[in-house]
């Protein structure tokens, strides 16, 4: 379902050797939800966007338990 709250997902190809970031992990998660046709895609999108506000652009190795607790 798409609309004002759920625009179509556009997945950009990941360049070889790109550093692993929160954004790449989030993209992979959403791609999997689309490929598997999970019905909970809309709810996971909202959760990813909420987390992206905090962790967007962070390198994956810096997302630790301590960082999440802060």
Please give a structural write-up.
- The protein has 70 residues and is mainly α.
- The protein is 50% helix and 0% strand.
- The chain contains three helices and no strands.
- Helix 1 (22-36) runs antiparallel to helix 2 (41-55).
- It is globular and about 30 Å long.
- The mean pLDDT is 86.
Short summary:
The protein has 3 helices and no strands. With 70 residues, it is an all-alpha fold.
Secondary structure topology:
Blueprint: H1 22-36, H2 41-55, H3 65-69
N-end to C-end Cα span = 34 Å
Uncertain ranges: none
- Please state roughly what percent of the residues sit in beta strands, choosing from under 5%, 5-15%, 15-25%, 25-35%, 35-45% or over 45%: under 5%
Total of DSSP H or I helical runs spanning 4+ residues:
3
Oligomer: single chain
Mean pLDDT: 86
The coarse overall form would be globular
Largest sheet: none
User: Helix proportion of residues, in percent?
Assistant: 40-55%
């Amino acid at each position: 379902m798409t609309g004002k709250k759920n625009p179509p997902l556009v997945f950009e190809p990941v360049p070889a050797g790109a550093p692993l970031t929160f954004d790449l992990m989030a993209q992979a998660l959403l791609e999997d939800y689309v490929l598997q046709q999970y019905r909970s895609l809309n709810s996971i999108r909202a959760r990813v966007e909420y987390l992206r506000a905090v962790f967007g652009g962070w390198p994956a190795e810096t997302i630790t338990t301590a960082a999440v607790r802060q």
